Amino acid sequence: MIVAFCDEESREGRAMFNLLQKLADENSEHAGTLEIALIDPDEFPLMVDIWEDMFGIDIEGGPQIGLVDISDVSGGIVSIFLVSISRICY
């Protein structure tokens, strides 16, 4: 799963969003196997510290993108994370 944290109100965040939208559009034949979660950290302020610790990133420093292996979801916090982002995946 591709996970991206970006604020669409910033120039860099809009660029990241547009890039991921283009990636999704160009790979629509892989629907169901290509999963992209775009997360606006402003919408989940209480999760920012948890995500930064979980992934070792600085969300407030600018857009962040990475891959998450969801094939072995045994940790409780990872399950909570996936439930949270499943509502905003497209």
TrEMBL record:
GO biological process: regulation of release of sequestered calcium ion into cytosol
Pfam family, one: Calsequestrin
Protein location: Sarcoplasmic reticulum lumen
Main subcellular localisation: other
Keyword RNA-binding among UniProt keywords: no
Domain of life: Eukaryota
This protein's record includes keyword Ribosomal protein: no
Segments forming a coiled coil: none
Gene Ontology molecular function, alphabetical: calcium ion binding
Record's GO cellular component terms: sarcoplasmic reticulum lumen
Keywords from the named record: Calcium, Muscle protein, Sarcoplasmic reticulum
Family named by the database record: Belongs to the calsequestrin family.
Function, as annotated: Calsequestrin is a high-capacity, moderate affinity, calcium-binding protein and thus acts as an internal calcium store in muscle.
Record's protein name: Calsequestrin
